[in-house]
Amino acid sequence: MINIQDIRETARDMLTKGEVRAVIGYRRGSRGMLAEPTFITSAEQADELVWDPTCFHNLSLYLVHDRKFLAHIRKNAEAPVAIVAKGCDARSIVVLMQEHYFKREDVYIIGVSCEGTGVLDERKLAKHLNGAQASNVAFDGGDFVFTTAEGEKRLPAREVMADRCLECRIPFPREHNIVFGEDKTGRQLEAPFAALTRFEAQGTGARWDFWSHHFDRCIRCFACRSVCPMCYCDECVVDSITFPVTTETTAEDKANRIRWIERSAVRSENITYLMTRAMHLAGRCTDCGECERACPVNVPIRLLNNKMEREAREQFGFEPGASIGGPSLVASFLDRDPGDFIR
Amino acid sequence: MSEQQVYEPRIVAFLCKWCSSAGSDLAGVSRIQYPANATPITVPCTGAISPMYIMSAFNKGADGVLVSGCHIGDCHYIEGNYLARRKMKLIMELLEFIGVEPNRFRMSWVSAAEGAKFAKVVTDFVNDLKPLGPQDKLKKAEHT
Predict the structure, then answer these.
(1) Whether residue A216 has pLDDT greater than 60
(2) Does residue A243 surpass a pLDDT of 80?
(3) What's the domain count of chain A?
(4) Residue range of the domain that includes A133
(5) Do B99 and A206 touch (CB under 8 A)?
(6) Looking at the predicted structure, is the pLDDT value of residue B1 above 70?
(7) Max CA separation in chain B (angstroms)
(8) A90 has pLDDT over 60
(9) Helices (H) and strands (E) in chain A, counts
(10) Which of A49, A52, A73, B103 could lock B128 by a disulfide, CB 3.0 to 4.6 Å apart?
(11) Cβ(A118)–Cβ(A165) under 8 Å?
């Protein structure tokens, strides 16, 4: 069990000593029981911090934002930023460091182990509560305890946990400066890639029916892109914002500029967008599941990323976010990479 | 009565400058007969092919996409085809995953001396594509 006071104490201590300039963590949000990201810059605020099953956000996104902001105001970081990170979040941070987005000393990782459980899936919970609203939720061994208007309700965590947490292989932040909670690696409640394997058992036709339905529904709000810590490119391939338009640019030039993907929300473009995104995340996605959670129309984006993750693992023996010094998936190769598909 | 139109698949072939492009040239100068369905696009190296090119080709109406480069170990840039092998494997798996017929994407190694092999690769590809019919899954809908 993680005692939240320990995390608060660590944050308070570091801020008092000036070892870090901010602590990125979770606090009680304004919407029911849900936690929200918070940025703490003074020791007094440390008591705001919370740790409960609704801390599903991948906070490493804000390290990226911080980096972009510093670049924008042309300042160097004076002190590191501390961040509360779960297993998946810590792996994201490792990938960012692997890509030299920031250095190890720029970030102080306060690791939190997901221990026997993981984080909540709101959609699953809604089915269990039958319309009731929970005002609070807490970890309790293998259960989640919800406080509702009708009193306390105890649910086994595995019934309301996010799918990715059920399949999580390493629910522990291996890269950390300080860590709270026990390492329960290997506590898998479902086989890794279980949902993916179930999906893949279907034939080509059934798979296409499934995906074409979901590709049709994408509204191209780019929530998946905004919420992803790995989608940090200044210019996304989807929107060519750096196309220079001057007085000399003719209408024909504008019309003929390269647009790999149109922005209109039609199936063919949505496919190209989502597939390209999956390719760009291959070997980088650490399965934090934020894209799928943020999606307003419930496109199963995680399945695509999962597929890439499994191919990387099985075909190339590659594990995203395993080490800071390691090579990246598509910029490295092995002699024994499969090549039997090539004629 | 008009003649019945025969479906001819359109193939976009990304050929590396050093091997496959020269290989296709050899097929031509050797007067080897093979279907004219492939539109060649010469790229500096297969390693330079972004998976985006493949998606884009399908998006713009290609019925099949062929990627061809130097044999492993023969890359002009030493390791370009090794990198391509990984990337193309991933995009191939992904295409198959969403339900695109596996035969729509193909990769081959054709050296500058293998004109006959290039002709065979294209012929086989066309023969495999014909039963699949036009590719409309990833194709951009035409604006009317």
Answers:
(1) yes
(2) no
(3) 2
(4) 1-190
(5) yes
(6) no
(7) 57
(8) yes
(9) 13, 8
(10) B103
(11) yes
DSSP state of A49: B
**Does domain B11-131 fall into CATH 3.30.450.20?**
no
CA dihedral (B84, B87, B90, B93) positive or negative? negative
Pairing state between β B11-16 and B64-69: parallel
Separation CA A57–CA A293 (nearest Å): 9
Please give, rounded to a whole number of angstroms, the shortest distance from the CA of B5 to a CA of chain A. 27
Is the same domain home to A178 and A207? Answer: no
A343 in any annotated domain: no
What is the radius of gyration, based on Cα positions, of chain B? Answer: 15
Residue B3: predicted pLDDT: 66
What is the dihedral sign for C-alpha A124, A198, A269, B132?
Answer: negative
Q: Show which of residues 312-341 on chain A sit within 8 Å of chain B, judged by CB atoms.
A: 312, 315-316, 329-331, 333, 337-339, 341
Q: Do A337 and B139 touch (CB under 8 A)?
A: no
Report chain B residues whose CB lies below 8 A from the CB of A266.
140-141
Closest CA–CA distance from residue A300 to any residue of chain B (Å): 12
In DSSP notation, A3-38 reads -HHHHHHHHHHHHHHTS-SEEEEEEE-SSTT-EEEE
Local confidence band at A234 (pLDDT 50, 70, 90 cut-offs): confident
> Which of B59, B68, B97, B103 is the mutation pick for testing A, counting most A CBs within 10 A?
B97
Give the model confidence (pLDDT) of B96-138 as tens digits. Answer: 999 999 999 999 999 999 999 999 999 999 999 999 999 999 9
Task: List the single residue in B87, B98, B140 with the smallest CB-CB distance to A211.
Answer: B98
Q: Which of A190, A206, A239 is the last residue of a domain?
A: A190
Tens digit of pLDDT for each residue in A101-123?
Answer: 999 999 999 999 988 788 999 88
d(CA B118, CA B16): 12
Q: Are A343 and B91 a contacting pair at CB < 8 A?
A: no
For residue B2, give how far its alpha carbon lies from the nearest alpha carbon of chain A (Å): 33
pLDDT of residue A141: 79
pLDDT of residue A242: 66
**Alpha carbons A51 and A2: distance in angstroms, whole number:** 8
Instruction: List, as one string, the DSSP characters of B19-38.
Output: THHHHHHHHHHTT----TTE
Among B85, B101, B107, beta carbon nearest to A337: B85
